[in-house]
Amino acid sequence: MGLLIVFGGVGALVSPIGRCLGEDDRVATHVRGHVVLWLLFAAILAVVLLWEREPLASLWLRPLRWRSLLLGIALAAVHIYVVFPFNMWFLNKSGLSGFGAGMNRVLSLPMWLRIVAVITAAVVEETLFHGYALTRLGTLLGSYCGAAVIVVLAFAFLHYPMWGSGPVQTFVVAGAVSAVVFILTRDLFAMILAHALVDTMGLIVTPLRLEWWNATEAAAKIGARRGLGGPLSPSSPRPLMASGQGADGILAGAIPSPACARWP
Predict the structure, then answer these.
(1) Which residue of 10, 51, 83, 233 has the lowest C-beta tally within 10 Å?
(2) Is 22 helix (H, G, I), strand (E, B) or coil?
(3) How far apart are CA 96 and CA 154, in angstroms?
(4) Is residue 32 part of a domain?
(5) Is the pLDDT of residue 14 over 90?
(6) For the purposes of burial, counting CB atoms within 10 Å of the CB of 222, is it exposed (0-12), middle (13-18) or buried (19 or more)?
(7) C-alpha distances out from residue 130 to 48, 86, 152, Å
(8) In a domain, 238, yes or no
(9) Given pLDDT bands bounded at 50, 70 and 90, which one contains residue 238?
(10) Which domain does 138 fall in, by range?
(11) How far apart are CA 231 and CA 217, in angstroms?
């Protein structure tokens, strides 16, 4: 029952059936999509507590402790400074499509809705796929590693309609890393925190930094033309992405880390 809700419910949402919620470019459509995801989340909790008569600890949800906070932050750092640069290097080398089309759609949404998306993705996706699907499949198969393979592949391919073929392969890599950590630590809260931090960097912090840098450069150029100040000096900070460069430029410049230089 619960596995059908997870894979069937989310699968229906990203399939042509999901078009009944409205046009993809409308804010109301995205709001309805988030409502559906939270309803799936509530349904899974009901299955666990009322149908299976299991505690929430069966989702590997531990009481909040400092260990969970530190683990979540550490896992987010691994994704941001190691996994993400590797995935971007892989996309560039392979010639596969990048995150541009999907990011352009996401960044066209208002900031409040992006914040809702971050919270929904972190809490709902982690609970459905890691907390429920992985633990239950692991019990059914007698192997959490086998369950992780199924969950990671399913999670990645469910993102295909939004992101395309290139990003799907990067989701496999990132999902495998998260699944291994989840199996070893059995700490759902840490996974939720890591997911929230990574998405916050990509969907909220980086776009805000981009807007600020571009506004700073534009103001400096206007001031120079009016004789109010000189042009930007070579030592002046450069914007993360020039206007019109595309959403992949946002992602490529999102993390000014030495790790980015590790991948030629």
Answers:
(1) 233
(2) coil
(3) 20
(4) no
(5) no
(6) exposed
(7) 14, 23, 9
(8) yes
(9) very low
(10) 63-262
(11) 9
Alpha-carbon distance of 221 to 231, in angstroms, equals: 6
The pTM of this model reads 0.81
Instruction: State which of 1-15, 24-38, 143-157, 193-207 shows the largest mean pLDDT.
Output: 143-157
Q: At what angle do helices 144-158 and 165-185 cross, to 10 degrees?
A: 150
The count of C-alpha atoms lying within 13 angstroms of the C-alpha of 40, restricted to the half-sphere facing its C-beta, is 29
253 phi and psi angles, rounded to 5 deg = -100, 10
Counts of helices then strands in the chain (DSSP H, E) = 14, 0
Instruction: Please tell me the total count of domains within the chain.
Output: 1
Q: Which residue has the tokens 């988030």?
A: 34
C-alpha span between 234 and 33 (Å, rounded) = 46
Express each pLDDT in 181-206 by its tens digit.
999 999 999 999 999 999 999 888 88
Q: Tokens for 70?
A: 């530190």
- Compute the CA torsion angle 186, 191, 194, 197 (nearest 10 deg): -150
Look at residue 7 and tell me if it is in a domain.
no
Backbone angles phi, psi at 7, to 5 degrees: -75, -40
Interior/surface letters 79-98, b for 16+ CB within 10 angstroms, e for the rest: bbeebbbbbbeebeeeeebb
Q: Is residue 21 part of a domain?
A: no
In angstroms, rounded to a whole number, what is the distance separating the alpha carbons of residues 100 and 116? 21
Residues 195, 181: Cα–Cα separation, whole Å = 13
What is residue 150's DSSP assignment? H
pLDDT at 18: 82
